[in-house]
Amino acid sequence: MRILFVDDSRATALPVIAFLEQQGYRVTYVQDGAAAVAAFQADPPDQVLMDVVMPGMDGIEATRQMKALGGRRWVPVILMTSLTASEDVVAGLNAGADDYLSKPIVFAVLEARMRSMHRIASIQDSLFGVLDNVYEAILTINAQGIVQSYNRAAQTIFGYSADEVIGHNVNMLMPEPYAAEHDGYLARYQREKTPHVIGIGRKVRGRRKNGDTFPMRLSVTELKRNSSSEFIGLISDISAEEAARERIEFLALHDTLTKLPNRAQFNARLEDLCAQPGTGMHAVLFLDLDGFKPINDTLGHEAGDEALRIAAHRLRHDLAANDFVARLGGDEFVAICHDVASADAALAIGNRLLAAIAQPMTLLGTPSRMGASIGIALLPQHGRTATEILTAADHAMYAAKRSGKGQVMLTESTP
């Protein structure tokens, strides 16, 4: 165990130091308060034995400054003094001292007091050992939002070391605008006791040292101490599970091969449009590729998959940003074009898509071409429900196929 021994009198200090070293302690000796604070900051000891009355910075001020430095470990400070006035004892304890020893020092009492402090420190070290080996980040802040403790999992999650965080405002771990708003929220909670996170828990965003933000689950508990409060934060990094959830949601609504929306998303989009079509006219295009089967049969499924990906890219590229295109399955695609000016405008869109699909492509090193047949139905002219509109567009597509393929046809049916 390392002891920082502080006493301006070498004659008083040397016998005590000799006793401590006989007991197996390693002792660093300084002779004034300023040197004690510097030694404490450079290499925190396990315990501090500090004289109270010293020239320059006395032991009480040195204790106050040591305790203000914080740190993950509790380092007990035992003040040594011949002063007996109660106000001197109170001043020392208020500065953060943990115990008192009266001078002249009785070695048996000194050893007993140090063992007592060591037992308390061991209990705290065991607690921090548990906290450092849990999966969740655990940190505590005081009523001003200043971080008091910060476990190993927090270091892993946020990327900051404990020394970089303890003693600083917890808002350094938050992105904007939460960082700027945190102190006001904390003050408002302490004034009004209306919780938004405290005692409730919620999903929020954190900020790593490198500036990245990430989703996390935060639970905060208030710990009341006399007239003030401390707050314990329990944090889980949920980046992986959020990514998995987003992936599942994407797969539920998208075609895995082309990454376009799938049939389920198209149906939902078309039903929403039929329910609220607005005052404009909308075109639903049903597209079936021509020449896809020969590619699949002669070049193989890998080439066929690439052909579908190229077709999907060309459709998305040639449609307006607010238009919607999906893959129904196989070599069938559908598109919704919003607020088209006329039937001729819808046909012009269809012909533009035909030209895009017909452009040459290279599949597995082999020059290839595909075409398409497109049927168009207009909302609300050719139907008012999703089933009516899609059926009308499907029939028009098959009419285009029967007419020689590579064509765009507008349905002639009416609801």
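The record above closes out task 2.4. Task 2.5 opens with a second protein, given below.
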Amino acid sequence: MTHILLAEDDINLGQLLQTYLKTKGFEVSLAQNGKIAFEKFNKEQFDFCSFDVMMPEMDGFTLAKEIREIDKKIPILFLTAKSMKENKLEGFSIGADDYMTKPFQMEELLARINAILRRVVDNTNDKNKELSVGIIKYEPEFRILHLKDGEKKLTTKENQLLQLLVKNKNEILDRNATLRAIWGDDNYFNGRSMDVYIAKLRKTLKEDPSIEIMNVHGKGFKLIVKD
């Protein structure tokens, strides 16, 4: 079942959209502002995002930027009362897959969501299934790496870090965005803590010489898996 993160500050509209999409077979988590939506995104697994642009605490554009730092592929659809060309261009520049202006027909929303999902090459529904990091098998749902010497159970934060690295394989994973996603704050002390976990992951994955977690100065990390 496709899991949608829906961020909408209009309570009535949000509940209406949630109910409609559930009747169409989707699992829908509703957040009433961008801050709550970002917290939900970092605690649960989602396949699709639909964000209102004008929201308290954190607007839809800022929310999308934060999410794009840690997930380059998840589909994002903006829903907004704004119709100015500049706003649409900003939405697409952030990485939106589509943009709908209120008011709209529910049937059109459903059609656009399905169209976007069909275009997604990387089937995000498979994210919790067994993956491979080089020659190492990885089960993120159970926090398990299958190493030569047996199964390695990852801590929660190790698993969250490795999931983000794998999801953004061979691309830069932004340091501050990762800290906010996993630790909730990008302060100095959390940064030192994350460096310790990165070092632990490097040690755990060293049995495969094709794997490297590289520091990208001033930006973050990159998981490189050589062919």
